[in-house]
Amino acid sequence: MKRRVVITGMGTVNPLAHTVEETWSALLGGQSGFGPITTFDATTFPSRFAAMVKDYHLEDHVPDAARHATAGRHTHFAIGAAVQAWQAAGLAQRDTLDREALGLYLGSGEGRLDFDNFMSCIIDSWRGGAVDTAAWAKLAFHRMELYREVEQEANMVLAHLANRFGVAGPAYNVLTACAASTQAIGEAASQIRAADIDAAITGGAHSMVHTMAITGFTRLTALSRRNDEMETASRPFDLTRDGFVIGEGATIMILEEYRAAKKRGAPMLAEIVGYGSSADAYRITDQDPEGAGAAAAMTAALADAGLSPKQINYINAHGTGTKQNDIVETRAVKAAFGRHAPAIPISSVKSQLGHLIGAAGATELMTCVLALRDGTIPPTAHLTTPDPDCDLDYVPNTPRKAKLKYVMSNSMGFGGQNNSLIIAAVK
Amino acid sequence: MADRRVVITGLGPVAPSGVGIEAFWSAALAGRRCVRRVEDFDPSNFPTQICGPLTDFSARDFVPKDYRKAVKVMARDIQIAVACADLAIRDAGLSTPSAPGPGHVPDPRRFGCNIGSGLMCADMNELGSALVSSLSDGRFDFRAWGSGAMENLAPLWLLKYLPNMLACHSTILHQCRGPSNTIACGDASGHLAVAEAASWIRRGAADVVLAGAAESKLNPMGLLRQTLLGRTCVSRNDEPASACCPFDASHAGTAIGEGGGLIILEELKHARARKARIYAEVVGWAAASDPAAVDLRRPTCGNVAAALRRALAKASLAPDQIDLALPHGTAVPAEDDAETAAWSVALTGRAAPLAACTATGAMGSLFAGASGISTIAAAMALHTQTIPPTVNFTAPAAPSSLTFQPTAAWTPLRAAACASFTVGGQSAACVLKRYPA
Amino acid sequence: MNQAEVFEKVKATLVDALGVEEDEVTPEATLTEDLGAESIDFLDIVFRIEKAFNITIPRGELFPDNVLNNPDFVQDGKLTTSGLQRLKERMPHADFTDFEKDPDINRMSTLFRVQTICNYVLTKVS
User: Fold this and answer.
1) Distance (Å, rounded) from C-alpha A402 to C-alpha A399?
2) pTM of the predicted model as reported, rounded to 2 decimal places
3) Residue B203 phi/psi, 5° resolution?
4) pLDDT digit string (tens) for B7-27?
5) Known catalytic residue at A355
6) Window B:359-418, CB contacts with C under 8 Å
7) For the complex shown, is ipTM > 0.90?
8) Which residues of A touch C (CB under 8 A)?
9) Chain B: residue nearest C36 by CA?
10) Residues B299/B331, Cβ–Cβ less than 8 Å
């Protein structure tokens, strides 16, 4: 008998809010999560703003925050989100999950570079146009610290969540750039289907609002530079877009096998019915101009779910607000959905949340679960000057009531990895 | 889809001992030792001054002429993966745009890619030459950096260090447009990638997958971090070749190597239809986690006993049906001891000791790359019915159910189990079976 | 620096940046179609030209990037008269003879030729 997978709990820490419901109200209320960068002095940078998580304190979420004192900023977000999800799934009250059959599957990013010490060691050992590694080593062994270094490894978020929830089952972390947490949820669901595990803690956490990542994306000219209008700077599908707004955060979900979830009386928020993954295999950063790669992931998800294109009622777009993405994604939807494409509402919550990179997919899937629950499609904000090359229904600026049965969420990673998920209400 | 079986048809190792399967395997059988003094940078103020480097390696030899421009945006880890991919595909007799040949052209939509990757270290000289243009009073000045100095950093700098670029370049070069993933889970990444790739084939999401991992921590930051962790051998800088001795009574820490291994996994009927050479069948895979491993000062092997137990169960094999073990073998004493104990637990019920081998002594730790390399070694051992020697091993550090041999041994091998674990507490295991059985 | 010297240096830069052979880099060659440049290569080329000639190239000056964001300048996938006018002002270093015949935005890459870079550099170094 086919094993079905349901979402039984969700939690989030993101630029709009630190709970699921507050995030949803903020999205529907048209709020924007963007503000000045506060993690370092960015006042002279070409892009001085980001979608920052604000006023977040791990101690507000756990009584023993000191346990995670050495962890990175994104790990703290992940713990807050995971504790919420665990609670929402009813597991804080009555925990019956078998730890051997509980997996972890995250799309988490690297931890933060110990920037000041890393830089000062290079600068202070700079001799004749290169680092003198003998001098460098003396300084570095003195200045750098074990935990700050090792916590940069992308698998360390797993270590903290495994510790907190006693996970002894499989633990994976993936980093397919902007598609990571969509992929994590898809693969976690696949492991439950294959009976490798019965439940999973899954999602993503990332913070790239740090000096070197902002520098790197700035040098690639990928970020919006609308410093004077930062609140409306993320403009997916709008002709006046000028790049994405980088963000940070975490969203964690609890997935369970349907019968086991039913047996323990778990809340059933949605069922994961389809997952598809593909690669553009086109160019390093240019997307396949016809959107064939992204379309292949959508088509694979439809096939996995056994659905035809016309059955999808809403598509949550990757929608970064870069010219290339928006046009390619539009073409990809047309390629995958054919003549049904114009009739399907599409929106990008990145217009308000920003681009949470590794955490983007999970956070966006969370908004799909809420859309399904309330029959409300979150809008694409800041869409006032439609791009003629983006000629589908992007639900501009105001939420829309709609009967939703099947909802698709898309993520397209920098580097060409594409992932699509389809969810449905639990029957 | 339960009748879909997964076999290995191509092997692409890039290791300090050899590049390509012939060089790699003959070096393995000969027990060639590759750990030497660090030459790429001045290690004189590091407690550990030895490493297992790749020699005479250039990714330019593994990409077509029109792709050479991209080598400049590849960190060493990415270059290794690109070479592994080319070698694995050619070894499998597949024909792709970048590795054209008379062989079978895989359907791009059914050709997946799953390459594990580690944390890549920025080239300090490249970064430094931009940084020093931003100083005020000898310190880094954020305002000078933001208002112009950052423009001295190459615009494509970030692309060199994104972990999914191992897969990105490989998929472009070989037109793998099926499922694609990048596992970033430390040393376990390669086995996790092979495991997930096998599950894709089993469930029908792909027919052919390029899978494995590659990494290079052979740079000052990598050496610093491993030294801070207390994992490197600090006492044998004068005798590098014999410094790294996993499971041996004299084990005293690891050396940093670099390299990787990618393999071609293929659905059995697909492989047979094109008359592919089949090295081995992948019959079991699993992963596990140690919740206590967040404490970095506590030695761990990531609950690898559970990963092995589950992988054997998935393979429907009992411990006494395995004839070869390929443990991770870091040569870090506490990790070796934990891993030895874990194998004993996993092999509970088995009467005789189990023959084992590890390549760490010969080339140092390859981190994510190690689990790619050990999968390749397992496949070759089964294919040639040969156990390669474990160098630098004379007497076990602790009572063990594993036995290591000083020279290569030809012996019937039905199945092999390989496993890996990482700092932070994740582990993975894969079980391979001789094909035909 | 004369035209021939500029060309030789631009050629060397493009050989490095794009991994092409020297004889492929002719003045008429288009960066995208003939020399295989993708969008990130344009960033790399600007960076390398800056270093090679010790000049500063403000963003969008050599390769304008935001003309297309203005609805007054683009209609039905073609540059309007005012759009074309604006682009000409922004790119005095480009030869518009061919592009003007059909100002389809998908043909903009025909403006980005090796000679375009040489012309731009000449205005900067002289």
Assistant:
1) 10
2) 0.97
3) -85, 0
4) 999 999 999 999 999 999 999
5) yes
6) none
7) yes
8) 219-221, 239-242, 283-286, 323-324, 385, 388-389
9) B66
10) no
